[in-house]
Amino acid sequence: MYYNLIIRLGVDFMDISNEKHIERNIVFNKAEFEAYYSDRMLQKEILLAFLNEKENDTKAIDNAFRSKKVDSILETIHYMKGSFLYMKTTKILELSIKILKLCDVQKLEEILLLEDKFKQYYQELVIEIEKHIISYA
User: 9, 74, 113, 129: least CB-packed within 10 angstroms?
Assistant: First the structure.
């Protein structure tokens, strides 16, 4: 329903259904992010806003998966997908879209199998953003 699509990220068109492709993606595309948002103050504000929501986002992710309700997971992942797209975070964005596609067809067991991977990718992203934000000092 929502995500039977191919999205443009970077220079290549990537088929979202290809899980192997997700595994080799970068966590945070700094070059694309900085090219898209040329104003350094804006870049810093976007990244700080993401980091400031880290605790709330982590709780929302935990609560959604713990609920074992497709609608709750869909709502949380869909909300976060916007940030991932905005920040050029290819790896977790693609996994988010995969989860949303599974939500569309009510495949709860498969969705729950992706919980640990999603949380891992989220933590990797936080680490990358924390490293990168230092360059704005």
Answer: 113
